[in-house]
Known about the structure:
The chain is about 80% helix and about 0% strand. It contains seven helices and no strands.
Amino acid sequence: MNKLLKSIHPIRIIRISLFLTLIGLNMSLLGCALKQMPEMKSGPLDSLNIDSKNITSQISQLEGQLKDQSQATDDPEVLFHLALLYSSPNNPSPDHGKALKRIQTYMKKIPDEKKNNFERYILALLLEIDSQKTKCIKCNNRVKGLKKSTQKLKETCDELFEENQQMKQINEKLKNLDIRLEKKRKSID
């Protein structure tokens, strides 16, 4: 061991010890940083049991609760839960329009002091999705109209091309006739 230490240059020993010290400091700072991180509080989704396997059955069950007057379900959380289920990325057929209606009804039913940023964020996203969907529908209708106009213009262009070809043929025939008439005139003179 002594031979090994003697063979290592003192500067290398200093470098190695500095390197190991820095690694130790980094690990201790990381540990302190992890201890200082706040614990994740339960969010609005924790109370809502969203099971991605049977979203459609959950939707029909909650819709049934809303329609059933005997249970007198006036819980706004059901509306919020429905909005999340309708707009879930795991929903095989998401309906953002229904989700928007449900969350708007939810936001009307709860007092302002109970509205949190997450709910406002979901509402804003659904409004933006609805806006983009409306724009998309308008653009698709515009494209359909432009395709019809383009088709009509192509038909008109084809008709005009045919007419132009006929005019060229008539013009060519007239030139030939003029040449023949000129020759006859010269022969008569």
